[in-house]
Amino acid sequence: MSLAERLEAAHGARLYAPGKSVLTLDIERLPGVARHQHRGLVIEGDFWDLGSWKHTIGYRLPVESVIEWPRTICVAWRWYGDKRVQFVSEWDDGRDAMLQATWEAYDQAQVLYGHNVANFDTKHLNTEWRDMGLPAPSPFKTLDTLKEARKTFGDESKTLAALTQRCGIATKTDKYNVQMARDACAGDKASQRRLRAYNVGDIVASEEFVDRLRGWIPSHPHSLIGTANDRPTCNQCWGDNLERTGTKLATLITYVLYRCRDCGANVQGSMHSRAAVTRGAA
After folding, report:
1. In the chain, which stretches have pLDDT less than 70?
2. How far is the C-alpha of 171 from the C-alpha of 115, rounded, in Å?
3. Which one, of 259, 257, 221, 213, lies nearest residue 238 by Cα?
4. Fewer CB atoms inside 10 A, N or C side of the chain?
5. Distance in angstroms (rounded) separating the CA atoms of residues 241 and 226
6. Per-residue confidence (pLDDT) for residue 205, from 0 to 100
7. Crossing angle for the helix pair 189-213 and 178-185, nearest 10 degrees?
8. Do residues 223 and 241 touch, judged by C-beta distance below 8 A?
9. What pLDDT score does 3 carry?
């Protein structure tokens, strides 16, 4: 792969022929409300989890102090390759319909993209689907860009806004505000439009950031289009524009190594040969 080709690949590569299988998703949530008596004083306020007030009262909030639990209030998603971003909210669709529509999107997805989507979005949605009595959606693979950034890169800030800014990707300029979210749920149209724009902006930025990372994410799920067993294909962009570049040495065996001409990824063949008949002894 020439230097010019590598520089071109550095600006990101699109996913090859994904169909309706790759979902980029982001949720927005509202904090809960608690009222708690501590040392003769009654404290009332917002909380995100039961440890939120620990720095003030010295212990976790008891469940009995919860007035309202935190909840998801809107969700945006887009199928890779589509132009339109889908958006559902409790003020436009009702809470149950919003969560049902989101569950259906998850149930259709084979691959899920998002920033902190594994530990935040999916886990919170799982809780709310469980409480509704819904079953687990069909199995899917997750590509979490926060996990990939933490694993591979040394950025001082790994928020989506910071990462996309450093990569020169257009990103959101607004910030989440609890009062804005409360106003949106209370029916304020301006706040609803603002929160929708914020939520949708995360989808566009997240998808472009994944495209920029192609070539750096060896754990990216492989192609769903059935060519992996027919000829060598790239697991990161799902194309077949590969060139053989040598071998990769494991502890005892070697694998054929390819470079993707489209996204720059290193791709390891599944066929291998023995590199040694001995190994170190401890």
Report:
1. 1-12, 224-230
2. 13
3. 221
4. C
5. 16
6. 95
7. 120
8. no
9. 46
Kindly state the tokens that stand for 115. 């920033």
Whole-structure pTM value: 0.89
The CATH-assigned architecture of domain 17-31+70-213 is 2-Layer Sandwich (3.30)
Question: For residue 266, how many C-alpha atoms fall within 13 Å in the half-sphere facing its CB?
Answer: 9
Tracing tokens 């390891």 back to the chain, one arrives at 268
Instruction: Report the distance separating Cα 108 and Cα 115, nearest Å.
Output: 20
pLDDT in tens, 92-107: 999 999 999 999 999 9
Tokens 């040394």 — which residue?
154
* Residue 64: count of CB within 10 angstroms of its CB: 8
Query: What is the DSSP-derived secondary structure letter of residue 16?
Result: S
Residue pair 261/243 in contact by the 8 Å Cβ criterion? yes
Of 127, 148, 167, residue with least CA distance to 219 = 148
